[in-house]
Amino acid sequence: MNNCRVTFIDGLRGLSLLGILLANMLIFQFGMFNKDTLTLNRFDTGVLHVVQVVIEHSFLPIFTVLFGFSLIKMIDAVRRRKTKSRWTILRRAIGLIVLGLLHSRFIWDGDILFSYGIMTLLLIPFINRKAKTLFIWAGIFTALMLILGIGSSMTPVGEADMTEVPAMVDYMKQENEVLQNGSYAAIYDFRNNVDIPMFGDDESAGVFMLIAMILAPIMYAPLFLLGIGLAKINAFTKMNQEQKWYRTLSFFVPVGLALKASSIYLGEENGFSMTLSLFGANLLAVGYIALFAMIYHSTAIQKIAPYIESVGKLSLTNYIMQSVICTTIFYGYGLSLFNKLAVWQGVLLGLVIYTLQAIISRWYLQFAKRGPLEYVLRMWTNFSFKN
To answer: Which of 93, 338, 346, 380 could form a disulfide with 25 if both were Cys (CB 3.0 to 4.6 A apart)?
Structure first.
C-alpha cells in the first residue's frame, strides 16, 4: 500500500462527494430551511423523495467514516517517521477548524470541516484503543443516539412549525430574497449577521444550541469510531478475502432504504420519524460502503474508477469547489438561479458538475500529487514545506 493509501478508499471518498453534492443541491437551490417547505408537482415530489431516501444524509456518513480511517493512516505514517503524533493531530484539527470557519463565513454556511476539526480533538482518547474497543464504543454511542432521540430533538422546528412561527417565516422570505437577488456583500452580511429564529425567542434558541453542542458528538462519534476501527484492522487491503463481509453488510442497503422511506411516510410531525431516518441513513451508509466494496473490481466500475478516485484524492479541494461553483450558479452575485430550477434539474446539474470535477481532477493529477488545499493542509499539519 503506497503511502498508506488504499485505492478503494479514494474511490469511496470520490463516490461520497457525489452523494454529498446531490444532497446539498437542495440547499443551494432553495435554502437551508426553504427546501423543507416546497410546493412541488407530482414528478418533482417523486424525485425529491428519491433524493431524500437514496441520497440525503447517507453519503456524508461515508465521508465521516473515511475521515476516521484516514486519520489513523496519517498517524501511522507520522509514527513511522518517529514524529510525535499528538502535535500533528492538533495541527490538523486546527487546520480543519480554520478552513471550516473561512468556508462558512465567506462561501457557504453548510460547512462540515469545522465539525470535523472539533471531532478530531474529541477522538484523541480513542486513537490508541484496540479495534474491538472502538467498535464497542461505536455501538454504545449508537444506542445513546437512539435512546435520546437525537434525530427529532435536534430538529429546531418541523415543517408545520416553521410556517406557523412569524419570525421564521420572515427569515425564510428574507433568505429567499437575498440569496436570489443580493450582491456578495449583502449575502455575506445576511449569512454572518442575521440570526436564525430557531424557536421565536433568543432564550429558547440559546438552550437549543447548548443541547445541540452537547449531543452532536454522540451523533457523529459512531461513524468516526467505525472508520478508526476499520483502519486498525487494515480493512479493504485484502478485498478478495473480505467478500463475505461485504455481502453480509450490503444487506443494510434495503434495510436502510426501508427505514428512511418509512420516516417519510410517517411525516415530520411524528417525533419518531427523524430518529428513524437518522438511524436508517447510517445503516444505509454502511450498506453502501459494503456494496461498493463488493462491486469495486467489476469491469463496469473499473472503467470509471480512475475518475472517481481522482475526485477522492482531491476531496478537500473538490468539496470547497462544489460550494464555490454552486453558490455562483444560484446566488444573486452569479447566475441568480436560486429557487428557479426544478428538483430534477438540480439533480442533473449536480451530475454535470461532478462529471466535470472528475474529468478535471483526473487531468490535474497528471501534473501534481495533490490538490492546492490538500497541499496547504498537509504543509500546516506536518509543519513542513515538503510536498
So the answer is: 346
pLDDT averaged over the chain? 87
Give the chain's end-to-end CA distance (angstroms, integer): 19
- Specify the number of domains making up the chain: 1
Write out the three cell numbers for 272.
Answer: 419518531
pTM over 0.85: yes
| CA distances in angstroms from 137 to 40, 107, 130, listed in the order given | 42, 36, 11
The answer to whether 289 touches 62, Cβ cutoff 8 Å, is: yes
User: Does the residue 158 lie in any domain?
Assistant: yes
pLDDT value at residue 203: 53
- The residue type of 55 is I
Please name the amino acid found at residue 215: L
Q: Which residues of 227-253 are buried (b: 16+ CB within 10 A; e: fewer)?
A: bbbbbbeebbeebeebeeebeebbebb
Cα 339 to chain center, whole Å?
23
* Three cell numbers written together for 251: 444487506
> Which domain, by its residues, includes 368?
2-382
Helix or strand run (H / E) with residue 96: helix 85-106
